[in-house]
């Protein structure tokens, strides 16, 4: 804990070296972490990745950010490490508390990302707006125990503001999830707008839409 606190007061070039030396993190020379408490068991940040200010990321086995992936300000990212001595999730022997962000993906600000099971966010995908919840765990009322399931979001997706995505959900590539929707199961159809509570297929998306052909993750 003392080492963690000490890293917070160091200038970024020194802090990056300290995080690599003291905690074994893999942080590219062009990557950057703002004033944030980011301490998974393992952290990998590729070229031009960024974690903004006031992010908390704890109790995860691993965070992997591929080239140009961004985590915006004031996000709360938690998990439940597999080496915990707690009895929770002992029935899930293959569970991994990880967050994987592919190339040019982005999580904007003020979201809650629960990585009790793995969450994968595809390349050029944006978790946009505010106040969305990606929740991989809940209580199984039939078995009377905590249970978790992974969440998969495909490539070139757009996640609208204030949505809820539950464990086991899959949003295919080239899709939009409308604002305030509840995604609670896996879908298969690409190039589709999903929305509602619970979410369902609403209409097809034109393949000419420029968002789905970006070569740079940043949207001007």
Structural account:
There is one protein chain. The protein is mainly beta. It is 9% helix and 34% strand. The longest helix is centred in the first third of the chain and has 12 residues, at 12-23. It is globular and about 50 Å long.
Q: How would you describe this structure in keywords?
A:
mainly beta; 2 helices; globular
Summarize the topology.
Layout: H1 2-8, H2 12-23, E1 26-27, E2 32-33, E3 37-39, E4 43-45, E5 50-51, E6 56-58, E7 62-65, E8 70-71, E9 76-79, E10 98-101, E11 106-107, E12 112-115, E13 119-121, E14 126-127, E15 133-135, E16 137-140, E17 145-148, E18 151-153, E19 158-159, E20 164-166, E21 170-171, E22 176-177, E23 182-183, E24 192-195, E25 200-204
Parallel strand pairs: 1-4, 2-5, 3-6, 4-7, 5-8, 6-9, 7-10, 8-11, 9-12, 10-13, 11-14, 12-15, 13-18, 14-19, 15-20, 18-21, 19-22, 20-23, 22-24
Antiparallel strand pairs: 16-17, 24-25
Largest sheet descriptor: 9 strands, mixed
Helix content: under 10%
Report how far apart the termini are. Answer: 40 Å
The quaternary state of the protein chains shown equals single chain
**H and E order:** HHEEEEEEEEEEEEEEEEEEEEEEEEE
Mean pLDDT: 96
Q: Rough shape? A: globular
Summing up helix and strand content along with how strands pair, one would put the structural category as mainly beta
Tell me the number of strands.
25
Number of helices: 2
Q: What is the strand arrangement across the widest sheet?
A: 2-5-8-11-14-19-22-24-25
Instruction: Using the CA coordinates, give the radius of gyration.
Output: 17 Å
Strand content: 25-35%
Low-confidence segments, given as residue ranges, are none
């Amino acid at each position: 804990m003392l080492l963690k606190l000490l890293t917070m007061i160091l200038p970024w070039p020194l802090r990056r070296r300290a995080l690599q030396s003291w905690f074994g993190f893999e942080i590219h020379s062009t990557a950057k972490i703002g004033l944030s408490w980011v301490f998974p068991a393992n952290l990998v940040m590729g070229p031009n990745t960024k974690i903004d200010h006031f992010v908390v990321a704890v109790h995860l086995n691993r965070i992997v950010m591929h080239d140009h992936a961004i985590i915006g300000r004031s996000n709360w990212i938690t998990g439940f490490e597999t080496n915990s001595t707690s009895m929770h999730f002992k029935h899930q022997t293959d569970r991994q508390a990880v967050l994987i962000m592919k190339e040019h993906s982005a999580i904007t600000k003020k979201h809650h990302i629960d990585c009790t099971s793995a969450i994968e966010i595809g390349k050029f995908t944006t978790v946009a707006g505010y106040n969305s919840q990606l929740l991989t765990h809940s209580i199984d009322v039939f078995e009377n125990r905590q249970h978790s399931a992974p969440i998969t979001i495909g490539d070139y997706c757009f996640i609208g503001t204030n949505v809820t995505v539950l464990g086991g959900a899959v949003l295919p590539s080239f899709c939009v999830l409308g604002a305030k929707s509840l995604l609670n199961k896996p879908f298969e159809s690409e190039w589709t707008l999903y929305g509602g509570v619970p979410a369902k297929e609403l209409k097809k998306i034109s393949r000419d839409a420029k968002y789905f052909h970006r070569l740079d993750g940043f949207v001007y």
